Target: DUF922 domain-containing protein
Amino acid sequence: MPLAFQKISISCALLLAFCIPGVANAEVVARKSISYFDIKGSTADELDAALNQRGPLAMGSSSHHPGATKIRFGGNATYSEANGRCYISSVKVTVDTEIILPRWRDRRHASKQLSTIWDTLAADIRRHEDRHVEIAREHARQMERRILSLPSASNCDALQEKANDVTTRETERHDADQARFDRIEAINFQNRIQRLLYYRSRHSGQR
Model:
């Protein structure tokens, strides 16, 4: 069952509020939700066709995929001024993720072999998308730390520009890491699924 994985990334710039005094602090807020799309089929070929027809669309493409993760960055920062300098007072970075997964509706009519194939595939899809979520959270934490560590500037406009540069660069790093992960996963997909099926079949046979 050939598969392609696709991350959907929707990024927004960090919003910045000016000149609010306070003790420097930072926070990363990560939220995750899961949604499903239904597929039907009583053979491996039918399941493959259903995934290709009903899976989520990749951004800017007509290709359907067996799973996807929508990612949105946001947040805010506050500033304070003292002795003619502008400082970062606080940073809050948010990362919202939505995992989109397939749900097989014909399982009760399927053979044990097909159920084993599906369980193996579904678990791998979920693991893949969970990793996309973790990559996004790692970069949200990096973004928060790098903004908070910015040195003071002569004025808040200049500091805001530096903070926006940090968000832009970190978002680009994030997108590059997600694309790299997808490329590696695509190369290893067939071997990984065959190995998982082998171990799952052995485990089922021993019970």
Summary: The mean pLDDT is 82.
